[in-house]
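FAQ: What does the model actually see?

It sees only this:
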Amino acid sequence: MTPTGSDAPGAVRRLPMFPLGTVLLPGSLLPLRLFEERYLRMVEDLLAGDREFGVVLIRRGHEVGGGEERHDVGTRARILEASRAPDGRWSVVAVGLQRLRVEAWQPDDPYPVADVRAWPDERHGGPPAGAVDDLRDRVSHLLDGHRRLGDPVPSEETVDGWDLADDPALATFQLADRVPIGTFDRQRLLEVRDAAGRVAELGRLVDEAREVVELRLAEGGTAGRGHDDRR
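And it is asked to produce this:
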């Protein structure tokens, strides 16, 4: 399985969809605990098929009960593990495969479904040589500052052992997943059209976050904490 694996270029396919209060990036893992009846049914249908579904961020509304307003750019995902508790609830771990764009929403019957099209990066829009490595160093320095402040970040061993993909498109998503930024910043990164633009946008967010961290360090860690509002 390749996280950036794609459907046929330009093809539209119908996928079960999971609107969430968080953003799934390609190459990232998504743990879910499901109890709502429509999504219990969805998991059963997915496990009987190819296990693939779409994830989109809720623009407005709630995850439970339906009727929410949804973003139209999300990520195709595949279930890696699924286990059912005695009370009928499902625990699922999925991986993000590739960015998608929703072409049309279908009626929720019984769960959300949409016609989607794969949205790969524009291959001619790659970042300059060395840009991803430079961004990786900046992200590492940002996380080191958070660590010194006692903020929850990946362990030093994890940071030192980062194994980024050779594909700049996936590598930039991997870096974005490690940065403690807000949900809507993460969605904006998902919607950037190519890796070069994502390097620039993520670099801007990292630099802004480092300014806050440096201020907190200078003030003895008393300034407002950085945040990540993912659920």
